[in-house]
Amino acid sequence: MAWTKYQLFLAGLMLTTGSINTLSAKWADMFSAKGCKDSPEHTFSHPFVQAVGMFLGELSCLVVFHMLLCHDRRRPEPKMNTGQSFNPLLFLPPALCDMTATSIMYVALNMTSASSFQMLRGAVIIFTGLLSVAFLGRRLVASQWTGIFVTILGLVMVGLADFISGNKDDSHKLSDVVTGDLLIIMAQVIAAVQMVLEEKFVYKHDVHPLRAVGTEGFFGFFILSLLLIPFFYIPVGSFSNNPRHVLEDALDAFCQIGHNPMIVLALLGNTVSIAFFNFAGISVTKEISATTRMVLDSLRTVVIWVVSLALGWEQFHGLQVLGFIVLLVGAALYNGLHRPLLAKIPCCANMVEEEEGNPAERARLLDEGRVQEET
User: Fold this and answer.
1) How far apart are the C-alpha atoms of 233 and 255, rounded to whole Å?
2) pLDDT tens digit string along 164-185?
3) R_g of the chain, CA atoms, integer Å
4) Taking each helix axis from N to C terminus, what angle separates 290-310 and 5-29, rounded to the nearest 10 degrees?
5) What is the pLDDT of residues 237-284, one digit of tens each?
6) Cα dihedral 121, 42, 175, 312 in deg (nearest 10)
7) What is the 3-state secondary structure (H, E, C) of the chain?
8) CA 111, CA 374: separation in Å to the nearest integer?
9) Confidence at 359, pLDDT banded by 50, 70, 90
């Protein structure tokens, strides 16, 4: 079935904004400017300030939800399903997970390349699958276990590519690259906990996706904004790249923005893109399919990699390409993208039917599950 112009627009919007989200965050990290009190010029290394901007983008989804709700109520026959009433505090635990994982990933993005950052986020499949078995009682089928093991292999390849490039690339020290990669994988453990919490406690209340994203953004934005105050006084030594070597120096960030307004453009790109990316992702799931959304989310890794190469942000490494392909295969196996092909083969049709189990339940989880990217 041919896609409509609106569906093509949504797919393009998701692919574009998803790519801009990571690229703009990396772009901000590459700026240098003077800080407060005429401190020497230094790189813009403020991951927690960037995370606040990302949550502001998610919070805007709540504004969009209420705008759509007001517009729908003006119709003679309202059609918008707002879901059941719920306690907003249900979103606090997953929001805290989202806040922690996002902050760690922005720290890691300072240490490694944008493409490796995006590829290594595929590790979320491993931990989501394992936690789903442990805490949700889910039974993974053979192809999902295979997808997990293939994903592990792909992560090893990407990690080796970074290890090799770290010896040749002066822009990132080898120790920083390895630490950054490990931090990204650590963040995926927390992101997986977030997904399991959302599935167990949140989505059973049939909350509208825009409302879910916006409510988590609300908690993340205000909590992390308040945490910037104690972060300003917590010394972390050489772990931090800001002049005072504290966990986060928000004042230094604003001073650098004042000396180099281009940083605002990068931060604004991150904030706006995450809002449109969430909207486009939800709309793609609704208008086309959740499978298409997963494919587009994987394709943005290619876009990020190609743009990074074109801009000279990183060098070409064949092992990284191979690792990406293996990660793509692992994600396809875990998410069942191979099943339509196997279903056409007579000898494999029965195996596909057994693997699918309860298709209605799987479709519900795919439709309601929010792809992590927000970064």
Assistant:
1) 17
2) 775 455 556 777 888 888 999 9
3) 21
4) 40
5) 877 888 888 999 999 999 999 999 999 999 999 999 998 888 887 777
6) 60
7) CCCCHHHHHHHHHHHHHHHHHHHHHHHHHCCEECCHHHCCCEECCCHHHHHHHHHHHHHHHHHHHHHHHHHHHCCCCCCCCCCCCCCHHHHHHHHHHHHHHHHHHHHHHCCCCHHHHHHHHHHHHHHHHHHHHHHCCCCCCHHHHHHHHHHHHHHHHHHHHHHHHHHHCCCCCHHHHHHHHHHHHHHHHHHHHHHHHHHHHHHHHCCCHHHHHHHHHHHHHHHHHHHHHHHCCCECHHHCCCCCCECCCHHHHHHHHHHCCHHHHHHHHHHHHHHHHHHHHHHHHHHCCHHHHHHHHHHHHHHHHHHHHHCCCCCCCHHHHHHHHHHHHHHHHHCCCCHHHHHCCHHHHHHHHHHHCCHHHHHHHHHHCCCCCCC
8) 19
9) very low
Round to whole Å and give the CA distance between 60 and 271: 9
- Name the one residue in this structure whose structure tokens are 């879910």: 212
Helices 290-310 & 262-287, crossing angle to 10 degrees?
150
Parse the chain into domains and list their residue ranges. Answer: 7-34+43-368
Q: How many Cα atoms within 13 Å fall on the side-chain side of residue 263? A: 25
Tokens matching residue 330: 């692992």
What are φ and ψ of residue 199, in 5° steps? -70, -40
- Measured at the CA of 307, the angle between CA 51 and CA 268, to 5 degrees, comes to 30
Tell whether pTM > 0.85: no
CB atoms within 10 A of CB 122: 26
Cβ–Cβ contacts within 10 Å for residue 235, how many? 10
Q: Which two tokens stand for residue 301?
A: 């890794």
Give residue-wise pLDDT tens across range 22-80.
Answer: 999 999 999 999 988 878 889 999 999 999 999 999 999 899 888 988 988 888 877 77
Asked if 332 contacts 125 with a C-beta cutoff of 8 angstroms, the reply is no
Q: For residues 148 and 153, what is the distance between their CA atoms, to the nearest angstrom?
A: 9
- Residues in Cβ contact with 25 at an 8 Å cutoff, skipping those fewer than 6 apart: 50, 106, 109, 114, 266, 270, 375
pLDDT for 60:
92
101: tokens are 């994982």
